[in-house]
Amino acid sequence: MRVLVVEDEECLADMIAAELRRAAIVVDIAHDGRAALAGLRLGGYDVLVLDGELPAPHGDVLRRYVVAERLPTRVLLLTAAGPDDRAADPAPAADDWLAKPFAPEELLARVVSLGRPARRAEPQVIERAGVTVDTARGLAARDGRPLALSRTEFGVLEVLLRAQGAVVSGDELIEEVWEEHTRYGGNAVRVTLGALRAKLGDPPVIEAVPGGGYRVAEGPGAEGAGTEGPGTGGEPETGARRARV
After folding, report:
1. For residue 47, which phi and psi values (nearest 5 degrees)?
2. Taking the model in full, what pTM does it have?
3. Which of 67, 113, 190, 212 could disulfide-pair with 92, CB 3.0 to 4.6 Å?
């Protein structure tokens, strides 16, 4: 699940992000409406956690944008307004709201609940070449052997398995797994894949496609699994996660 937290109070935004990340949710943060709009235009968010009093532009603009562009993003509005004030709100209705101050565990529960419909068409258990991930429980295994994966390794494996043999570029992996504004070295994808391959064990199933990216082969013993073609990483030394920025 990917969440965009839009909150101008940096301490509160960091607290929200930390709570969500502990639940293995990918979080990007924007502290004003302009940065939030830029993120929404790139797409890919399941939930928007939005400060109801956000300035410049106001949070209402973001809510209208979600509706006008027919984004699948669900909106959780953080507000100090009472029921009468919310009833008079001229902006499009949020999918849910949470009154400030709130308990972090309550916010997490609301986000998880909103995020489920956005992923309802995707299978919770994905399998290919004897490798399985259970996205609902956060479990991975190969031939029935449990795998102890980091959040990033699990995310990369999930993306590759969902591709069902199609080639996934390094840029696409960064887009799906790494968080926006996270600084990473040029070898981030290769290092993560190296660790993931070691945990998957032999014979290898992740294949490096020269000039293209990576894929999970039909069966064990993927050709070229230990080689890296030009352009397979696709990641800059520093900067935002999204290659399209």
Report:
1. -135, 140
2. 0.52
3. 67
